[in-house]
Amino acid sequence: NLPDPSKPKLKVLHISDIHIDSQYLPGSEAECSEPECCRPPKDQEEIVLGNVNVSAPKWGHIGHCDIPYATLENMLQHISKTHSDIDYIVVSGDLESHADWDYTKEGHAETIKNISSVPIDNFALHNVPARFNMTWLYGSMADNWKTWIPSNQLETVKYMGCYMTPLYKGLRLISLNNALGDAVNFFLYINQTDPDGSMSWFEKQLHDAEVAGDKVHIVAHIPGGSSEALEGWATNYYNIINRYENTVMAQFFGHTHSEEYYLTFENINNGRSRPTSVIYSAPSVTTYSEYNPAYRIYTVDGNYDGSSYQLLDFEEWYLNLTTQGNAVDPVWEQLYSSVLEEYSLPSLRPSDWNNLLIHFMNYGKDDMLFKKYIKNYYRRSNMNCDEACFRGHLCSIRQAHHSESLCDDIPLRIKRNNKRKNKTKYTAQTNFNHLPKNIDDLKKYILDAIPKDACTL
């Protein structure tokens, strides 16, 4: 049930994927042939500011560039001036630039004094030789976070980089180190189901919260449907969330750099079953490689006896680098003030987000709401999305783990004659099992079944 709107509210700032490039150099080449641009070239004999085709702007460039520290600083100054009512802040990972060839232990240890960063995603487990041990990183985290993490959680941080902390009466925050579920963390191929006991620990934290009658917000980094999430980890996380769907009120993720959401379902391989939760992937601060910098602020059912602590709404702000890239004093703009209003959602319940997905399925890529979704996904206008792109986005919403069966009812889009009265509507219960599985047979089936004067592929 939705809470009484007159009850107190909380404001939660969500920042993700900052990716600061300490070598960002305004005026350097922004469209280079290297993996990371907007920085001095590797060839020291090259004239840094000469022969530049596309000059890196002062505040950032949309492309293979991360952001300068000045942009992060400017964003935080803007947030401080604009949002005086923030109650707590979550940062869902990735502070360092994508130039991972520059990473060092010393650099990470220094960065940890402010926030966590990932050493090329390879977090060794405790069952590998000691020379790969992560004590240097986890220990640095524990030392620098001890003023705001409960003392009884410090050993967990030192062991696996996870912790639980009470935020308010009846609300706990779990920070889950899901670099222990990262597909490019090669140590996990020894054990991806419960690395270092992290998933067992996670389940116990939720069990303890359930027994106490508390609600939980989760902050992690890589969504389970990402290509960089191991399926063993993703399915275990998914099943745990389904078990504790009445306890987990928010899941704050990042990693994708885009604004998107993922649904979990009661049957983890059936996207037509009951939706159980929503995973939010917040927009990135970095521009890498197609995005304007952005941040998000949630409105949450507030701190009072019996609060549900569920998410009620959120707004987003962004920096339009097309117009503000070289501004003296850049202006951060509101992308939208209410996601409820933006997508005509009654609430942020899983069923309402699922109905939005069904709306997309019914009305196609040219629908106004889907066009808004694509614009907000990138924080940019005039982004094209063809039929393959359209289906990919819809399938992504369904895939909080890697299962193609979650997308088997997302059909080939057909351009219909608007004069036809009986248009097909897809619902959560629509069954497409009668359709041929082979793509050539499916095309023939469609061509044979549809009147040629009514539709075109």
Automatic annotation (TrEMBL):
Organism domain of life: Eukaryota
CC cofactor: Zn(2+)
Cofactor stoichiometry and binding remark: Binds 2 Zn(2+) ions per subunit.
Start and end residues of each Calcineurin-like phosphoesterase domain: 10-258
Binding site for Zn(2+) 2: 94, 221, 255
Pfam families per the UniProt record, alphabetical: ASMase_C (PF19272), Metallophos (PF00149)
An MF annotation (GO) of this entry: metal ion binding
Disulfide pairings: 32-37, 38-65, 385-389
CDD domains referenced in this protein's UniProt entry, alphabetically: MPP_ASMase (cd00842)
Location of the protein in the cell: Secreted
Cited InterPro entries: ASM_C, ASMase/PPN1_MPP, Calcineurin-like_PHP, Metallo-depent_PP-like, Sphingomy_PDE
Residues noted as binding Zn(2+) 1 in the record, renumbered to the chain: 17, 19, 94, 257
Record-level GO BP terms: ceramide biosynthetic process; sphingomyelin catabolic process
Keywords: Disulfide bond, Glycoprotein, Hydrolase, Metal-binding, Secreted, Signal, Zinc
Main subcellular localisation: secreted
Annotated GO CC locations: extracellular space; lysosome; membrane
Residues of the Sphingomyelin phosphodiesterase C-terminal domain: 285-402
Record family assignment: Belongs to the acid sphingomyelinase family.
Entry protein name: Metallophos domain-containing protein
